[in-house]
Design goal:
Blueprint: E1 2-3, H1 14-30, H2 39-48, H3 51-72, E2 75-82, E3 87-93, H4 107-121, E4 127-133, E5 137-144, H5 147-155, H6 165-180, E6 193-199, H7 210-220, E7 223-229, E8 235-237, E9 256-258, H8 263-272, E10 277-280, H9 283-296, E11 299-305, H10 307-328
């Protein structure tokens, strides 16, 4: 925290000065104590007094004084604010394994609910796009601030065939770059854009490998946040999607096959692009992840004056001090 007028912090000297004055008046008042002729009455009164309560109103008053003095110096802090012309692309796996029901109602259903929560939590000035991928990538919603269009796009998602993570990343990178345009980069070289990649399995299709796709994001200065969706015991029957040939095996009707997520690859993508990786084994977990990202992603650090925070704190402490003084019968300085 820095201060626009640091010399005004000398006003904090009022706090110890006020405390010394209060102690001096308290000691002076004690010299004129009332004499008790009945020592038993005096002892009973002394036992019932709770000395620490007498100092609560004064302590609150001193804190209010300190907060007001800090406010005078116009404190400034680094806070997160929405980046100008920021764009986030939701990149979602719609391979056949997203039919698995180890995450309720299905993996894809849980992902759709979570992405809808993300759209509602991200700042309204941020553009959000939607790209799905199975055997190949598809741009479903061009980055927009129209949340209705985004919700409609999310509702239309349906499981298809294979898993082309690398190609999906390539399209997401192109989408972010086209939306951001010539917006200035941050000090760390990142552009005001990000990709949120959700997948529930290993790559089975596509031209680019996942790390080749991650390299394109890194070179463009785009962070990728990855979410590995699903449990290690997720399975899918042959009739539930293997007939579509999404590359996890084969077999006859009635057989079930494991459909495990690939958190190692997704973690490597996030690490390569300076993003973060998450693991979601339940619908509530994936929704919480998207909500968290919606509140923090596409932000940039900025210096803001926070004098109003200290003014508000000083006012509240002063009210509490006055209330405490009325309850204890003590007088403030």
């Amino acid at each position: 925290m820095t201060f626009a007028s640091p010399w005004l912090l000398f006003a904090l000297l009022l706090v110890p000065a006020t405390l010394l004055a209060a102690l001096w008046f308290e000691r002076r008042r004690a010299r004129y104590a009332v004499a008790f002729t009945n020592l038993d009455v005096l002892a009973s009164v002394a036992e019932k007094r709770r000395p620490w309560r007498r100092w609560v109103p004064l302590a609150l008053f001193l804190l209010a004084l300190a907060a007001a003095a800090v406010a005078l110096a116009r404190p400034r802090a680094t806070v997160a604010v929405p980046a100008n012309r920021a764009t986030v692309v939701l990149l979602v796996d719609v391979s056949g394994s997203m039919r698995a029901a180890d995450v309720k109602p299905t993996r894809l259903g849980a992902a759709q609910n979570a992405m809808a929560a993300f759209v509602d939590h991200v700042p309204k000035s941020v553009k959000v796009g939607l790209v799905s991928f199975s055997t190949g990538p598809n741009l479903l919603v061009v980055p927009t601030t129209d949340r209705t269009v985004l919700h409609e796009g999310i509702d239309l998602l349906a499981p298809e065939a294979g898993t082309a993570i690398g190609d999906g990343l390539q399209m997401a990178v192109q989408t972010v770059k086209a939306s951001v345009g010539d917006a200035p980069r941050a000090r760390d070289g990142k552009i005001p854009g990000a990709i949120v990649l959700l997948s529930d399995g290993a790559q089975t299709r596509g031209i680019l490998t996942p790390l080749q796709g991650a390299a394109k994001a890194r070179n463009a200065g785009i962070r990728v946040f990855t979410i590995a969706l699903g449990t290690d015991h997720g399975t899918l029957g042959f009739n539930g999607g293997f007939g579509f040939g999404f590359g996890n095996g084969g077999g006859g009707p009635g057989r079930r096959f494991p459909v495990r997520p690939d958190p190692v690859t997704l973690a490597a993508i996030a690490r390569e692009t300076d993003g973060k990786t998450y693991r979601a084994k339940s619908a509530s977990k994936v929704e919480n992840i998207y909500k968290q990202l919606g509140q923090s992603i596409a932000h940039r650090p900025a210096k803001r004056e926070i004098s109003s925070w200290f003014v508000g704190g000083a006012a509240l402490l002063l009210l509490l001090s006055v209330g405490g003084a009325r309850l204890t019968g003590e007088r403030l300085p």
